[in-house]
Amino acid sequence: MTQTDFAQLVEEAVGSIPDSFRRKFANLNFVVQQMPSPDVTHEMSRHPMGLLGIYQGIPYPRRGPWYGNVAPDRIVIYQKPIESQCSSDDEIRGLVRKVVIHEVGHYFGLSDPELRFLEAQGTEQTEKGEGR
Questions:
Q1: Hey, where are the domains in the chain?
Q2: Residue-wise pLDDT tens for the chain (132 aa)?
Q3: Across the strands, what pairs with 56?
Q4: Less crowded by CB within 10 Å, the N or C end of the chain?
Q5: Are strands 28-33 and 73-78 parallel, antiparallel or unpaired?
Q6: Cα–Cα distance for residue pair 20/54, rounded to 1 Å
């Protein structure tokens, strides 16, 4: 998949987030990169192919009156690791959406354990036919 096509999938995923959340996006950029840098993988203690995305910044709930004149927060989505876990364009689209939503959760201050719990609840509801 071209990087342009992949970036379009990221834009679609961001667009699928409800307006009530997107209205709270402030000083936040979404970026597509082919692979995480060695510095990022070392910092995260992850294999480069196991890191699908990352949120870098000051989470929205922790911003106070002092927050200003800072570089934008970033959500970086890594194309090659995502593609390596998928066997079709539809699977890539689904995984991109999942990763974008996960990283947006970090922007809103949720931890990995909290996000895993919410993701598991969403999976259970989908399997039961709820939440559609």
A1: 3-127
A2: 999 999 999 999 999 999 999 999 989 999 999 999 999 999 988 899 999 999 999 999 888 888 888 889 999 999 999 999 999 999 999 999 999 999 999 999 988 888 888 877 765 554 555 544
A3: 74
A4: C
A5: parallel
A6: 22
